[in-house]
Amino acid sequence: MQRVITRSIYTVSTRPDTADDELCVCVLLHGPGCAEGHEGAFLGRSRRVTSLILSGVGLLGVAQLCSALLPIPKSLPIDRFFRSTHAAWVLAVFGILVGPFYEELLFRGFLFPALRRYLPLVASIVIDGLLFALYHGPQLAWSWAPMLLIFVVGSVLTIVRARTGWLGSAFLGHSAYSAFDFVLICAASDGFRHMHKLR
Q: Which pLDDT band, with edges at 50, 70 and 90, does 166 fall under?
């Protein structure tokens, strides 16, 4: 399957109007070496992938510990998506795959490099993390405590992106963070069937 995807990317990339978009997808899949013409195997980078996934899980663990010390509201707007088991499963799939992909493409793929053109590294990371938190504001009722946690998470993902030079690293960390979060919620609520147990 990976060979088919790779072959399609390099075939379509010969078209001028799609070259930039396909290059972006190629770099996301294979890392920065792809931009230099190296067809590195994404699945073969097991150590890097494992490290990034564990980092995402560890980041969630730290966030959970911090949330126990902060005044997190008992009810947030995002909770309405967990009113039914079906909606919760849909949100889980979206939150693990679709959400991280588009958010990383926006914040770490386009916004962060744009900020780096005009601002120092630290300022770019802080602004990117701040905008990431503001983006999630409506889901969190603009409550400062959960938004602070999201700011930290976003900043860490931006740091990972900056250190590795690879957008896929931020996506893997973000996706692992969300996946483990949903796993914990799913386990605690008997497969999203008894959400009242979380209150």
A: very high
Residue 26 has pLDDT above 80, yes or no: no
Q: How many other C-beta atoms are found inside a 10 Å radius of the C-beta of residue 145?
A: 15
CA dist 135 and 156 (Å) reads 16
Instruction: Measure Cα distances from 98 to 7, 88, 102, 105, 143 in Å.
Output: 23, 15, 6, 11, 25
Nearest CA-CA partner of 188 in 198, 178, 180: 198
Write down the pLDDT at residue 106.
Answer: 97
> Which of 171, 160, 174 minimizes the C-alpha distance to 24?
171
DSSP class of 135? H
Cα distance between residue 88 and residue 90, in whole Å:
5
Residues 113-130: tens digit of each pLDDT: 999 999 999 999 999 999
pLDDT over 60 at 22, yes or no: no
4 φ, ψ (degrees, to nearest 5): -65, -45
Long-range contacts of 85-93 (CB under 8 A, 24+ apart): 85/191, 85/192, 85/193, 88/185, 88/189, 88/192, 88/195, 89/192, 92/182, 92/186, 92/192
CA dihedral 159, 165, 166, 171 (to 10 degrees): 10
Taken in order 31, 33, 37, 40, the sign of the CA dihedral is negative
Burial 80-90 (b: 16+ CB within 10 A, else e): eebeeeeebee
